[in-house]
Write a structure and sequence with these properties.
binds fe (ii) ion; homotetramer; TIGR00282 family metallophosphoesterase (chains A, B, C, D); 2',3'-cyclic-nucleotide 3'-phosphodiesterase activity (chains A, B, C, D); hydrolase (chains A, B, C, D); 13 strands; metal-binding (chains A, B, C, D); YmdB-like (chains A, B, C, D); alpha/beta; 259 residues
Chain lengths: 259, 259, 259, 259
């Protein structure tokens, strides 16, 4: 049986990020023969949060499902649709918030995929334990499908790699997001889980993680408040393509995308 | 004139890291025709700090110069030789500490290279401003040579990328260290500085940033104190090779190494 | 019926802290006609952690019960007795650790007191939610007694005051510990809970929260590692005396102690 | 010669804080026979920052001088007057910002007072070293007057007490602000500097450091974004009264105020 090929795209940042998705996603999906496309959308609306309009627009551009992260609540419009839009999840370890932390989606007639979003706690707000949350939800999802993708939205490399090992053999693909810089450590772990510390972002390359560089430098040099603005110029899509064995849920291949 | 080819190696972690240096460095230097080899040695002694014995051993293995980072002071032996060993520097923005934050080294008869080590402050201790420190020292070094390598030992991707842009056109090569995970964003910035957010580590691959994974998972799951131990198993060298134009100090090429 | 009078003593720091307890506690208990004495013992052994010997010694000096905090695990001897010593508790929101987070103790024949220890998370490690933990345990304790004392070991004033309001009317006394500086905001909250943000420490007054001041200044000025040592010189006991109505569990009075 | 009597008032929070100043300050100044009144105004406008209108209003109410802190930049109106209003200072260790970090004010014909504002760095943004900044500026002020008041706006008790000892004998009065909770450790240090870790806030007492308690509890329980609002209900003024020997600059007395 042909493996399932998943494209997982890093944090889409503002209009430049959305534009490069509009322009290149169809082409990429054909080029890599993608079966299912997930993207992190926490920065899709002006760099902070996501609106219903932006979300629908991205779904129309070919994204099948969206994960998010700490910026999910930045644009208040999210509260209008997070509970009804089944194709968007937020970190599962928020102790009490609208929306869902995981979802099981259909791919074609016979295939189901579980998608789980979790947030780290190192250098981040103290949500519920990401490891226990992942443990519990993956046991839940495993009752329905072996194909499980985890977006671990976290800062520290140690916490992300630890999660990779923790879920090794239980998830098909564990990707990190949040740092907006793609790492070069993609691999299949010992028990068959494809892993990468961060898939990077989708947005302007001449920037500081998507933001206009002068604004960020001013911040670091003065420690004064500054309104961050999404940078202009050329953008690229960062992400990974992973092949999953439909029978076992194990990963067969993981490849970085940067184009 | 042939460009200068520099090999910059990521944090060498404990005995496994040193062993892979002993076994592979000579070969790598020949393979890539390296002119000068720098390594970050902050974790060289048992994962924490560096001793004189370990340092000399690494120099004998073919490393020409060492930068360090926040772990430099972990092994008290460092205080015995940091002031006399001219081939090791510590972050320049410690406000009052032994050792030096930069050094100008000779490569052959006619070539001088300035090496600068700085530490970030985001999610790290509040040292002096890394940007102002870099600014001042690079002006100093520039009086003697145009070939300048900066090891920015920092956690946050935003701070590291901001430093890259800040020094663009003034340094030949700016590499990040500290996260122990190599990033895939190596490039030549707009004004000729070669940049990468993190060059990764040199040590055991089946680990959490060099540490035995069970210990780290225990820590994350319990928040209890635990003695971290350097992991065993296969190791690899992570780093970058950069070509620098000797006349202009500009970078011509940057390539990731992971072997 | 005469109210129950509780003496709650702030973090006992090292030998100086233990000595002032030996010297003054009996006198204080007589002077204030104390029925039950609780102390925070997380720094009792050399400033870091607690040993069985130190603990027994403090019980002999007249302390009836001990709470602790983030330093509880610093001295490894604690693992030898934390599970058997019913008079010592550790923060209840450690997700998986030895020892207990609360205890119900007897005072005389007819009176039971529930003592709960929790740790904050602001500027501290990400344990389980302190508010949910408190909620759950207080419901448990309330089945057996209305007299409930909470030691909330936390850094941020906002988190501590929030806990006071959260437990107002459900606990008899909520005291903060950890900052080692007594606050002047003791009061009875609107629904009858006695509250103070921090009861201070028991140890050397010419120090920085118990530590030799030169060591701490060296640390702040250099950001270099330094071995903290408990300071010498005169010590004082910091704490509060609270009167609890035995029938309702409500606080009638709270008074700061500094002597 | 009669000592100089200074009233130093803690962070004035929003309208409730300003109202209690209007209502009680004149009375307090007469009651305590105050010569000079300083207040921390970083939260004076709606809880965040300060506007010109609010500032002038507070000066009219009897405040002679204002210090601030990390919230100084929250209301953008501050940029319109911070450079021209000589009676307001901001933390001196901002590396590059408008306004001044210290000022020398006149009290009557013959008396000058130096006022210095510094921010801590523990659990706060990485400004320049507060200790070196204080050192340098106090040497500057000392050329003109021996009467020196320092507002150290900081979070950690250790950093604040360390600053007290660091300036002992060089400043007349060192007060902490920022935690909004008054501490009970006021004293004259060994070399004559009056010190207190925090003077508390001026604002609504049934609140969490000035903010409506339900909002803060919602934040702690959910980790969701929430718009903080200044609480209502009764307010009080927190601060200290200190007597300074005009000839030596040494403190003779320090007394907490809470009314
Ligand atoms: Fe993001
Ligand atoms: Fe994020
Ligand atoms: Fe390292
Ligand atoms: Fe490091
Ligand atoms: Fe303590
Ligand atoms: Fe503590
Ligand atoms: Fe404030
Ligand atoms: Fe503040």
């Amino acid at each position: 049986m042909k493996p399932l090929r998943i494209l997982m795209i890093g944090d889409i940042v503002g209009r430049p990020g959305r534009t490069v998705i509009h322009e290149k996603l169809s082409f990429l999906k054909r080029k890599y023969e993608i079966d299912f496309t997930i993207a992190n959308g926490e920065n899709a609306a002006g760099g902070n949060g996501i609106t219903e309009k932006v979300a629908q627009d991205l779904f129309i551009s070919g994204i099948d499902f969206m994960t998010t992260g700490n910026h999910i609540w930045d644009n208040k419009d999210v509260f209008n649709f997070i509970d009804s839009e089944e194709r968007i999840i937020r970190p599962a370890n928020y102790p009490a918030s609208p929306g869902k932390g995981y979802q099981i989606a259909r791919i074609g007639q016979n295939c189901k995929i579980g998608i789980l979003n979790i947030s780290g706690r190192t250098f981040m707000p103290p949500l519920d334990c990401p490891f226990r949350t992942a443990d519990k939800i993956i046991n839940e999802i495993a009752k329905e499908t072996k194909i499980i993708v985890v977006d671990f939205h976290a800062e520290a490399t140690s916490e992300k790699i630890a999660m990779g090992w923790y879920l090794d053999g239980r998830a098909s693909l564990v990707v990190g997001t949040h740092t907006h810089v793609q790492t070069a450590d993609e691999r299949i772990l010992e028990n068959g889980t494809a892993y990468i510390t961060d898939i990077g972002m989708t947005g302007p390359i001449n920037s500081v993680i998507g933001v206009e560089k002068d604004k960020v430098l001013y911040k670091f040099l003065t420690q004064m408040p500054v309104r961050f603005e999404v940078a202009g110029g050329p953008s690229e899509i960062n992400g990974v393509v992973a092949d999953i064995d439909k029978n076992t849920g194990r990963a067969l291949r993981i490849q970085r995308i940067k184009e």
